[in-house]
TrEMBL record:
GO molecular function: helicase activity; hydrolase activity; pyrroline-5-carboxylate reductase activity
Residue span(s) of domain Pyrroline-5-carboxylate reductase dimerisation: 157-262
Protein name per the record: Pyrroline-5-carboxylate reductase
Pathway assigned to this chain's UniProt record: Amino-acid biosynthesis; L-proline biosynthesis; L-proline from L-glutamate 5-semialdehyde: step 1/1
Length: 265
């Protein structure tokens, strides 16, 4: 059944476009986009990226999908397009609900942290809001983000920096692992194209197995590992004191710290 919730997307980069495609596929019928520099990919969608007028009413939902460093300028530019009673969903990393409420008085603010698998409708989005958010607004926010994957509501806003560090930035960690595995394969004799094929398909297949299995990651790892075998030899390196777990912890802490720094911009 078509959903006529008025949506205004401000900023349509890769994540904005991912959400937009999800809404179009989920039959949201009242979508407007404001993007000063529309890409060819955005222009190919059945949406005018810069309409001459914007639908503004009390049921309006505005999604901020711009760079966090630029959000104040963007809000100054578009204040007139945001209804005084609108709900505003922000995907700006590190920008707090309080900062957004100061910039957008009286609006209901929801913070969201989606991740890039949203582009293939496999995203995970964390949502949080002030305690006084209405059930109606909460339901709209949930339905909008479910169009690109799963949704988890987080009660404590301080967790959003941690969410950013784990799931928001997490896809890049996995892609870098594929890069590293590809480079290692080349080093031990694979041709570059074959090395990438083996690395990519190994990760893709393993992710599908993880998705379909009732066992946790640790058990799946053990299922692949024979005592004294080749996998064990590799894991002895990866699981050493200064191995992958230690490196991942430092990486996640660095991402969390940067998210916290962005809140002070």
């Amino acid at each position: 059944m078509p959903n006529s919730t008025p949506i205004l997307l401000i900023g349509a980069g890769k994540m904005g476009q991912a959400m937009l495609k999800g809404w179009l596929a989920s039959d949201f019928t009242s979508i407007e986009v404001l993007e000063n520099f529309p890409s060819d990919a955005l222009r190919s969608l059945p949406i005018d990226p810069n309409p001459s007028t914007v639908t503004i009413n009390e049921s309006q939902t505005v999604i901020l999908a711009v760079k966090p460093q630029n959000y104040r300028e963007v809000l100054d530019e578009h204040q007139a397009n945001i209804h005084p009673e609108a709900m505003v969903i922000s995907i700006l990393a590190g920008i707090s609900i309080e900062a957004l409420q100061n910039a957008l008085p009286k609006r209901s603010i929801v913070r969201a942290m989606p991740n890039t698998p949203a582009t293939v409708s496999q995203g995970l989005t964390a949502l949080c809001a002030a305690d006084d958010i209405s059930d109606a607004h909460k339901n709209v926010a949930t339905s909008l983000m479910q169009a690109v994957g799963e949704v988890v509501w987080v009660e404590n806003e301080s967790m959003m920096d941690s969410v950013t560090a784990v799931s928001g930035s997490g896809p890049a960690y996995l892609f870098h692992f594929v890069e590293a595995l590809t480079a290692a394969a080349i080093d031990i004799g694979f041709a570059p194209e074959m090395a990438e094929t083996f690395a990519r398909k190994t990760i893709i297949g393993s992710a599908a197995l993880l998705e379909s299995s009732t066992e946790n990651a640790a058990q799946l790892r053990e299922n692949v590992t024979s005592k004294g075998g080749t996998t064990q030899a590799a894991l002895d390196v990866l699981m050493a004191d200064a191995g992958l777990q230690s490196i991942m912890l430092e990486a996640v802490k660095a991402a969390k710290k940067r998210s916290e720094e962005l809140s002070k911009i």
